[in-house]
Amino acid sequence: MRAAVVKTFGGPDAVEIAEVPLPEPAAGQVRIKVAAGALNPVDLYVRSGAFGGAGKTIGLGWDVAGTVDAVAAPAAWQAGDPVVALVPGVAEPLAAHAEYVVVDAGQVAAAPASVDAVHAGTLPLNGLTALQALDLLDLEPGASLLVTGAAGAVGGFAVQLAAHRGIKVTGHARAGDEELVRSLGAARFAAEGVPAGSVDAVLDAAMLGEPALEWVRDGGAFVSAQPGRQPGSVRGVRVTAVEVRADGAQLAELVRLVDAGVLTLRVAGTYALEEAAKAHARLAGGGLRGRLVLVP
């Protein structure tokens, strides 16, 4: 089968489409025939060598939407089931941008019924990151939350999920994104920032760091969407970062919210698998409002 990999770190041209062995599921795993999978900023970091693995062949891609192709018992899935899954890992020889991928059965959820596979392929990584970040903040209904990068994929999901939980959301993004951010459920919008200490919590999807920390009240909470990018704690603010993990039950809850119309899946464009390098170059160019999706 074909898979997008890097053998030498570098720019978009480092992405190769390689012929690799078809993976076989072990006990408790399923093999998915991939229909679509989003390209994410983390893939650019993997490609450039930010996570190590020099001298190895490294697969790319975290998101997968497709159909179950093979099952190794025991697993609660059958061949032909439409599914989505998160394929975590930054230095593995095979990842989600491939024609087939093997994952643990517990990482899998039934695909949304209301959208196609291309849109479904944008959900796992960014949706789980937003959900798990909100769980770390542990805010009660009525609390105030500022989401940086609110027009982006993680930030947009965070705005919608928080608003659905009854949290008062301020979306922070570029001025031109105000209409979009408000449409996602933000009660307030900020392009420049807010008064110091004026919100209960910040979810820092744009990795602004210390400037965003100043907006949190004393004793509030701050979570970064990327481990290692969070500032040090001040004024008793609880500071942490989300390290996304695969969770089929949480993914199933996100799917339910998609089908209920709570979550919006945004696609900026599609590329064939063999155009992966071109997709990497487009993502690196910035300015997207939605995910690029690779379609094997």
From TrEMBL:
GO terms for molecular function: oxidoreductase activity. Pfam families: ADH_N, ADH_zinc_N_2. Keywords: NADP. This is NADP-dependent oxidoreductase. Residues 10-294 form the Enoyl reductase (ER) domain. It comes from the Bacteria. InterPro entries: ADH-like_N, ER, GroES-like_sf, NAD(P)-bd_dom_sf, Zinc-ADH_QOR/CCCR.
